[in-house]
């Protein structure tokens, strides 16, 4: 399998306007929050879902770009495809395991070659029909809002009735079906990601896959608009390219070069600084400034502003 020759680390900034970027099912679908700081959170699983959806739209039907984790998909049937391709005899039954290590390698290779998200994010594929486990070269951390968020609970009504009885009851009581909706008026979120060249060698994640990943990160919200998520947009994508496969500097040192602060009459001020207590809440990307330190980059590291 071929892979990348360079390691990459990246920073993504995205915003939400009057929407719920990632509801928490354990909290009545409220926007995810850090309870100690009230900063908003978006899970890595949610961000990977957006990337998968974009790739499915952009490369639908193209060889090597099928999506393994899909809504309503039966994973074992996708595993069975691998067995049918590797074995000459019919592969039936609910339990299938590799005959030996050589076959296990071929099964994992089939899954990596055919499914974009397997060779990108990896997968655990031991659900009855066993195709093993793949550790993906691309990983993402939870996104966190730059400042604390203030979720709002909005009451909504439904004019239509679901049955004749409900219609008659509504007429008699002059009442409508009520519901609740949670939104964040505005939030700017920051996420970090990592692309391992060494792990890409094992899955075959190559240069074209890397370019598609960055394309997806820049456009992942463009086809994901809904009443629940409101307006979500990727605002910045800053990539650090390492000269070597193992990397030329620790990721956290590179991430520290990207600072996001409040825009106070054109002046950069870090959130939480003294004197910002009476600052109005942010309601647009223009309320923030992004500073990128390009000076004195570690030897062998290139900074690329993709967006």
From TrEMBL:
GO BP of this protein: maintenance of CRISPR repeat elements
Top-rank taxon: Bacteria
InterPro entries named among the record's database cross-references: Cas7_Csh2/Csh2, CRISPR-assoc_prot_Cas7/Csd2
Protein name, UniProt field: CRISPR-associated protein, Csd2 family
CDD domains, A to Z: Cas7_I-C (cd09689)
Chain ranges passing through the membrane: none
Organism of provenance: Insolitispirillum peregrinum
Signal sequence segment: none
